[in-house]
Structure formats: structure tokens, C-alpha cells
Amino acid sequence: MDPLVNALNTIMAHEGRRKTECIIVPASGIVGRVLRLIQSKGYIGEIEYIDDGRQGKFRVQLFGRINETKAIKPRFKTRVSELEKWEKRYLPSRDLGMVILSTNKGVMDHVQAKEEHVGGILLAYVY
Q1: Max CA-CA distance within the chain?
Q2: Which residues contact 15 (CB under 8 A, 6 or more apart)?
Q3: Do residues 92 and 62 touch, judged by C-beta distance below 8 A?
Q4: Is 75 exposed, middle or buried (0-12, 13-18, 19+ CB in 10 A)?
């Protein structure tokens, strides 16, 4: 299974049960970068990497602010001019949530991608 899909499903399951933290296994680079981006927007709290000698884990503090988060499959390639279409498709309103992209300048949300005028591959959405 895809580690990003697994991580976002774990977060949604724990948010639905009103848990205050969750453990995400396995830890990967893309999962870590996506979690840090979600953390920078205030949806989740502290992220701690736990090295267990195998794949690694992330311990994530939850605030209960996430209504929905899912990975976008298949991972569509998009241009800056097409970002508006994907916002309308995945987000409930204009100023609520973010679409997460992987660009050649790193993992960023759709607003930052528009400012830097770069396209990329759609990874996930959060609101």
C-alpha cells in the first residue's frame, strides 16, 4: 500500500475517534514532508520521528481540526493554469483547506505554487 495513503487514512481514523495522537507506520520522506506542511498550516500539532530500527514511525499530535484529508490517486500532473480546476474539485470552498503538490521546488500547497508559478504532481488535499 502507498505510505501516504496509509498515513492520511490513519489520521482520519484517529480524528474520527477524537484521539489526541496517532502513530503512522511506515515513515517515509514524502510522508514527513506532507505532515510538516499540514503542521505549518495548523491542522496538526507536534510531529516526532521514532526510529525503531525497521521502517520508522511518526507520532503525530492531533487537534481535531481536520474535516477530511485524502490522497489524490492517480497522481495527476498539473500546470499552474490548471490549479483552479483542482481546487474546485477537491476543496469545499475557495479559502478553506489546501491541495498539496510535489513540485521541483519541493512539497507545497496550491497557494504557494501559484505564487512561485510552478506546477507539479497532485498528492493530497486537506480541509
Answers
A1: 44
A2: 62, 64, 66
A3: no
A4: middle
**pTM of this prediction exceeds 0.90:** yes
pLDDT digits (tens, 9 = 90+) for 29-72: 999 999 999 999 999 999 999 999 999 999 999 999 999 999 99
- Domain made up of 69-126: CATH architecture: 2-Layer Sandwich (3.30)
The CATH classification of domain 3-62, taken from the options 3.40.630.30, 3.40.50.150, 2.60.40.180, 3.30.1370.30: 3.30.1370.30
User: Is the C-alpha dihedral spanning 58, 59, 61, 62 positive or negative?
Assistant: positive
